[in-house]
Design a protein that fits this description.
The protein is globular. The protein is of the alpha+beta class. The two termini are about 40 Å apart. The strands form four sheets. Strands 8-9-10-11 form a four-stranded antiparallel beta sheet. The protein has a three-stranded antiparallel beta sheet with strand order 1-3-2. The protein has a two-stranded antiparallel ribbon with strand order 4-5. It folds into two domains: about 5-180, no CATH class; about 260-345, no CATH class. It contains 15 helices and eleven strands.
C-alpha cells in the first residue's frame, strides 16, 4: 500500500473526477472553511475545470453551505447533506462549544439566547443575506449591546442549531442567511443510517485513514465511530501499514497518479486537517511549519503528496520557501499559474 498516492487520488488532488464544485463538496462531505478566501481554492484544486463564478453561483444559491459544525469549526457542506449532518454532528459540536464558552468565562442564559436568536432570525429573513454588522445594528435597535466575542457565540450556536447558515459570497466578509429560506428540507435519516452514510463518505474521500483519524475529524465519540465502521460491513476493510490499522473502502482509487507534481495547498485543507496523525504526508520534524499547537494552519506545498514547503497565496507573485535545500531550485510556476488563473477570473 502506498498511502500517499491513495490519499492524493481519493482526496481528488490527483486526477480529479468532478467538474462541478457542488459535486466536490458533496463527495468530500465536509471541507474545513476556516479561511474565507482560501476555502474556494480548496474546492477548486479538486475540480477538473475550476471556476470562481461557478463556485459563487453554487454558494449564493445554497447548493454549498458554510457554517460552524463539526468540532465547532467552519466547514463547507452540500445542501443535500446539510440537515442530516446537523442531526448527527451538531449535538457534540454544541457541547464542545459550550465547553469553550465556559473556559472563556462566557455564560449565555436561555432567555438571552432565545431573545437574541429571534433578532438574528428576523434580520436574516428580512434581508436574505446579512453580515455580522447587520446583526449588531439590529441588536442596537433593541437596546442590546454585546462584545464581538459574545455575539460570535450566539451566531455559532444558531448555526449549529440549523437556524443560520451562509448567505451570499462576498470577497472578504462572511454573510449569514435564515436556513429555512435557503436550504430545502430533505428526507430524514435515522441515526444508524446517517452514521453509516457519513462514515462511508469520510473513508471514501480520506482513505487510508484510521479509527483515530475518523474520531478526530468527525468529533464523534469512539464508540459511534466504531459502530459506523461496523455498519459498513464488507464494503470497508482494514490493512496494516507500519504497525497501524488503516481502513479502505471497496471504491478506493489507486490509479491515475503521475509523479513530478507540485500542489499549492491552502491553510486548513482537508489533506492535513482530516487526520489526527499527519506524519504520513508531513515529516514530523517540519510539523511546526505546517501548523502549530493552537490549531493555526499555514499554506503548504506538496511534492508528489509529501509536504515540503510553504507559499504565500495573497502575494502578486509566487513566493515559496522549502524545508530542505534540495528544493530551493525547483520550479513551481505551473502550480502558481493554475492558482493565479483561478483567483483572477
Amino acid at each position: 500500500m502506498n498511502p500517499i498516492v491513495i490519499r492524493l487520488l481519493n482526496h481528488q488532488l490527483a486526477a480529479p473526477q468532478f467538474a462541478d464544485p457542488t459535486e466536490v463538496v458533496r463527495y468530500m462531505c465536509a471541507m474545513q472553511a476556516q479561511e474565507y478566501r482560501m476555502m474556494r481554492w480548496a474546492v477548486a484544486m479538486r475540480t477538473r475545470k475550476p471556476s470562481l463564478k461557478t463556485f459563487k453561483k453554487a454558494f449564493d444559491e445554497g447548493q454549498i453551505i458554510r457554517l460552524h459544525l463539526m468540532r465547532g469549526t467552519w466547514q463547507l457542506v452540500s445542501a443535500e447533506d446539510y440537515w442530516s449532518m446537523i442531526d448527527l454532528f451538531a449535538p457534540k459540536a454544541i457541547a464542545v462549544t459550550k465547553g469553550w464558552m465556559s473556559s472563556n468565562k462566557i455564560s449565555i442564559p436561555d432567555d438571552e439566547l432565545m431573545q437574541v436568536r429571534d433578532i438574528l432570525i428576523k434580520t436574516a429573513a428580512d434581508k436574505r443575506s446579512v453580515t455580522k454588522e447587520d446583526f449588531v445594528l439590529a441588536l442596537a435597535e433593541k437596546d442590546m449591546k454585546m462584545d464581538d466575542h459574545r455575539l460570535s457565540y450566539h451566531i455559532r450556536m444558531a448555526e449549529m442549531a440549523g437556524i443560520l447558515c451562509s448567505g451570499d459570497l462576498l470577497p472578504m466578509k462572511a454573510t449569514y442567511a435564515f436556513t429555512a429560506d435557503k436550504v430545502k428540507s430533505t428526507v430524514k435519516m435515522d441515526n444508524d443510517e446517517a452514521l453509516a452514510y457519513f462514515t462511508r463518505k469520510y473513508f471514501q474521500s480520506r482513505q487510508p485513514a484510521t479509527l483515530e483519524d475518523f474520531a478526530w475529524w468527525s468529533g464523534l465519540n469512539f464508540s459511534d465511530c466504531r459502530k459506523g465502521i461496523a455498519l459498513l460491513g464488507n464494503s470497508i476493510h482494514m490493512e496494516k501499514w507500519k504497525g497501524r490499522q488503516f481502513y479502505l473502502t471497496e471504491e478506493c482509487r489507486i490509479r491515475g497518479f503521475r509523479k513530478g507534481k507540485f500542489l499549492l495547498i491552502p491553510p486548513y485543507d482537508e489533506y492535513l486537517i482530516s487526520y489526527k496523525s499527519r506524519d504520513i504526508v508531513l515529516p514530523p520534524e517540519y510539523t511546526h511549519r505546517a501548523h502549530n499547537n493552537s490549531g493555526i494552519f499555514q499554506p503548504i506545498i506538496a511534492y508528489d503528496g509529501t509536504i515540503c514547503g510553504n507559499w504565500s497565496p495573497f502575494k502578486e507573485d509566487c513566493q515559496a520557501s522549502f524545508f530542505e535545500e534540495d528544493f530551493e531550485s525547483v520550479d513551481v510556476s505551473e502550480a502558481w499559474q493554475s492558482y493565479n488563473n483561478y483567483r483572477n477570473k
